[in-house]
Amino acid sequence: MVPAAHGAWLAQRIPGARAHLLPDEGHLSIAAGKIGEILDELLPDL
Predict the structure, then answer these.
(1) Which site from 1, 15, 18, 33 is most exposed, i.e. has the minimal number of CB atoms within 10 Å?
(2) For residues 44 and 6, what is the distance between their CA atoms, to the nearest angstrom?
(3) CA distance 24 to 40
(4) Residue 27, CB half-sphere, CA atoms under 13 Å: how many?
C-alpha cells in the first residue's frame, strides 16, 4: 500500500486539495466505512 506520508505530500502539491489522513484507516476501510462522510464533503448541499 501507499504510505500515508505520500498522501500528505501529494495534497500539499495539488491546489485546493485537503488531506484527511485518519490513523488506522486505509483505502478499503475508508471506502467501506466512511463513504457517506466522503460523499457529504464532496457534494455539499445537494
Answers:
(1) 15
(2) 27
(3) 21
(4) 4
pTM, whole model, 2 decimals? 0.57
Supply the range of the domain harboring residue 19: 4-42
The DSSP annotation for 1-46 comes to ---HHHHHHHHHHSTT------TT--HHHHHHHSHHHHHHHHSTT-
CA distance 44 to 46: 6
pLDDT digits (tens, 9 = 90+) for 17-28: 888 888 888 778
- H or E element that contains 29: helix 27-33
Into how many domains does the chain fold?
1
CB of 19 closer than 8 Å to CB of 8 = yes
